[in-house]
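Need a sequence for this fold. Nothing fancy.
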């Protein structure tokens, strides 16, 4: 059937070559072996035979990914798209909404262009499609790899029913700088956890079967080091040693490649003075030759053009540099005013001998191979499925799952006197500018979600309380005193309209309901676009108008629960001092209100743990748990100031909340840390066990964490490194023994020569509830 339809639709190509030669009918080809490791490309012959037919223009067309959809993150927007598709000058499009639109556009490519090569359709499906999960930083706080993988799988199912076959996710940029707004889109500061999540996401999207109609190609980004811009300012310069790159920043990208990710996005920043987009060492030597990546590399949005501003030359120079470096597809270069683009400059580059036709063919081959892998040559419309779009998207099952995921991702930062959970029979005063804003619940980068359909905190509380209690609501304040700042933080349809009342009137209304209540729930923090792309901040406090509101609410003497919305670690010193309970909900996604209510009322016991350190003040940034010891560490355990030691005059070195931190309504006691051996050799493995007792009054889940410290090395080693974790469910009163196996692989690191080695010597092992744990043992790694 498919073949017949194709023969009909893709006339010229079928006539010229015969369907059998070009179109793959075997949709079940192993995608993993193609992209994840260097192996034979099963589509080589077919791809070559198409390339033989292509004109230079058509070849450059395959490398062209113009911006057309409603979402643009820069000024570039293409014109004349239909004509260009007919002329074979476009290889794919991104962020187009709706399978019907995509079907129409695909039809033009397949029926009207000379060779009928199908387009690839990308989208920023970042944390869900219609069903939206928490922002990635939130999701990472669940520490539940199976669940994270399933979120990507659900996103793939929904997206693939709507015409999308390629997602610009996962973003795995390690970041230790909460000033950087895009910390919200990643998995926090740890390379080990980040690598596990990278694997889970790639597997979730691709399911090791790219040809299936409910999987999509993943694109790991932003390669590389984008999470370390100087001063936390987006798009800023990155400069770091190779040894830091290899040990601390590159592992998650590598993990994605090992998992068979189909594509990679180059980052905006420079690396060793050469922008990633044109960095041959990065895109070829490391990525392909060293790691064995066989998929294709796409630039970030106008990334090639931006090399002009980086000072890398004119249009011909930068496009040549990118292609030669190993970049295959140009995102958003094809637009008026963008005077450096593959489609515009590579012909001249070829004429001038700056690139060869082989360079172009190599890139074209990679793109065509991806299209084969996705089964697009077999059926270009396979992702436009009306029936699936009607039955598999935003289903009750997916929404229920999103509710569960959101609750699992929330982090209880403080809970004095068991303020939480709240009794459903209470009179609750819900206050705050984030309490009744559906459009803000999904958070940043939620391109495809129907934002207005998310449930709000107010919806959630009312639904879950039902007629058992009373929910009163007042907005309490605007998001910010500064209207301009507020506008910037509520863009892309995430408006929180000002209602014309003065700050005092808003506050008075809030206080009047607060005074009638048993408990106050303050839904405050950042609005959704205070984090995300181009949303760096230097002030990491909750906006002042909301702090003033919070302080006024505290003065009522009623118990206050702070439901904190944020896309980054904030400075919460004052709140931690004054507010009895703080629940960090991040941006929980489309089921936000229900999930928040589940946790507030104790139907779900919170179990999330921070994956990013919360500082005491901005001056401590960058702050992260796996730092080095220095030659002058503090000599006291209390963190007291010592002259001529590595510390500050005005603030202690410790953060407010460390990596791995998060409370539960119950308590967990750790005891009986045991190692099955005192030493292992280079082939050995050691087993570490610990007893964890639920000593409180609720059943709960605990993320048990294992860290090591390599005491002596040929290069300096971090004071702690996460090497294992398990999320375990423990009933109240129950004790579980949790066991970890440490192998020599876990002890390896990149040494001065960038060899990946384990060095014999003493290793400390720490197990506990967060990275601050002091529960310690040790073992020796011996040569023999
Ligand atoms: C972002 C990418 C995104 C791309 C396409 C860029 O501005 O940096 O993360 O995938 O736009 O929307």
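Here you go.
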């Amino acid at each position: 059937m498919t073949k017949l339809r194709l023969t009909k639709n893709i006339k010229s190509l079928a006539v010229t070559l015969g369907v059998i030669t070009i179109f793959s009918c075997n949709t079940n080809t192993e995608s993993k072996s193609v992209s994840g490791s260097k192996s034979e490309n099963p589509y080589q012959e077919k791809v070559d035979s198409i390339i033989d037919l292509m004109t230079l223009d058509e070849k450059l067309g395959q490398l062209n990914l113009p911006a057309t959809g409603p979402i643009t993150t820069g000024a570039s927007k293409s014109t004349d798209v239909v004509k260009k598709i007919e002329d074979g000058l476009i290889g794919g499009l991104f962020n187009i909404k709706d399978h019907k639109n995509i079907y129409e556009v695909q039809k033009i490519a397949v029926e009207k262009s000379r060779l009928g090569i199908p387009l690839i359709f990308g989208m920023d499906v970042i944390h869900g499609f219609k069903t939206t999960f928490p922002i990635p930083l939130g999701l990472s706080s669940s520490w539940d790899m199976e669940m994270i993988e399933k979120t990507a799988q659900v996103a793939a199912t929904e997206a693939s029913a709507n015409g999308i076959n390629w997602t610009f996710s996962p973003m795995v940029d390690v970041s230790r700088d909460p000033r950087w707004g895009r910390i919200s889109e990643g998995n926090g500061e740890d390379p080990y956890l980040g690598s596990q999540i990278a694997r889970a996401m790639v597997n979730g999207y691709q399911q090791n079967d790219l040809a299936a109609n409910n999987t999509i190609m993943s694109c790991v980004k932003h390669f590389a080091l984008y999470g370390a811009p100087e001063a936390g300012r987006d798009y800023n310069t990155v400069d770091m040693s190779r040894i830091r790159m290899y040990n601390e920043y590159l592992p998650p990208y590598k993990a994605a490649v090992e998992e068979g990710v189909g594509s990679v996005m180059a980052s905006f920043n420079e690396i060793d003075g050469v922008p990633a987009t044109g960095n041959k060492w990065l895109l070829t030597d490391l990525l392909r030759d060293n790691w064995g990546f066989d998929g294709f590399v796409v630039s970030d949005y106008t990334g090639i053009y931006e090399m002009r501003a980086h000072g890398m030359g004119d249009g011909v120079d930068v496009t040549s540099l990118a292609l030669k470096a190993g970049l295959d597809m140009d995102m958003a270069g094809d637009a008026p005013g963008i005077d450096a683009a593959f489609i515009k400059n590579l012909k001249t580059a070829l004429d001038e001998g700056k690139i060869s036709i082989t360079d172009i063919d190599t890139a074209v081959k990679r793109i065509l191979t991806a299209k084969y892998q996705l089964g697009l040559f077999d059926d270009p419309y396979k992702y436009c499925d009306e029936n699936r779009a009607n039955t598999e998207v935003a289903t009750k099952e997916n929404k229920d799952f999103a509710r569960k995921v959101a609750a699992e991702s929330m982090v209880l930062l403080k809970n004095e006197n068991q303020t939480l959970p709240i009794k459903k029979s209470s009179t609750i005063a819900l206050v705050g500018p984030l309490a009744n804003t559906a459009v803000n619940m999904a958070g940043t980068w939620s391109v495809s979600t129907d934002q207005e359909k998310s449930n709000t905190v107010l919806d959630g509380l009312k639904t879950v309380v039902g007629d058992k209690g009373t929910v009163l609501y007042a907005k309490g304040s605007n998001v910010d005193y500064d209207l301009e700042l507020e506008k910037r933080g509520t863009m892309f349809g995430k408006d929180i309209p000002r209602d014309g009342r003065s700050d005092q009137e808003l506050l008075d209304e809030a206080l009047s309901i607060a005074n009638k209540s048993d408990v106050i729930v303050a839904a405050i923090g950042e609005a959704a676009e205070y984090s995300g792309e181009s949303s760096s901040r230097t002030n990491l406090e909750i906006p002042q108008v909301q702090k003033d509101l919070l302080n006024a609410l505290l003065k009522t003497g009623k118990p206050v629960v702070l439901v904190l919305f944020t896309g980054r670690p904030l400075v919460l010193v004052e709140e931690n001092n004054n507010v009895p309970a703080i629940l960090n909900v991040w941006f929980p996604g489309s089921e936000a209100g229900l999930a928040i209510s589940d946790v507030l009322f104790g139907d779900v016991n919170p179990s999330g743990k921070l994956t990013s350190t919360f500082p005491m003040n901005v001056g401590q940034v960058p702050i992260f748990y796996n730092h080095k010891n220095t030659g002058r560490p503090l000599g006291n355990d209390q963190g007291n100031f010592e002259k001529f030691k590595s510390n500050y005059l005005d603030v202690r070195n410790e953060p407010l909340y460390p990596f791995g931190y998060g409370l539960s309504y119950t308590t967990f006691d750790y005891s009986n840390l045991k190692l099955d051996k005192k030493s292992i050799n280079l082939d050995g493995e050691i087993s570490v066990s610990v007893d964890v007792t639920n000593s409180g009054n609720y059943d709960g889940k605990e993320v048990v964490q294992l860290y090591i410290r390599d005491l002596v090395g040929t290069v300096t080693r971090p004071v702690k490194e996460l090497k294992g974790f398990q999320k375990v469910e423990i009933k109240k009163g129950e004790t579980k023994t949790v066991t970890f196996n440490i192998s020599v692989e876990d002890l390896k690191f990149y040494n001065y020569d960038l060899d990946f080695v384990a060095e014999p010597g003493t290793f400390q092992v720490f197990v506990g509830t967060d990275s601050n744990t002091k529960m310690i043992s040790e073992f020796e790694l011996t040569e023999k």
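For context: Residues 145-161 form the longest helix (17 residues).
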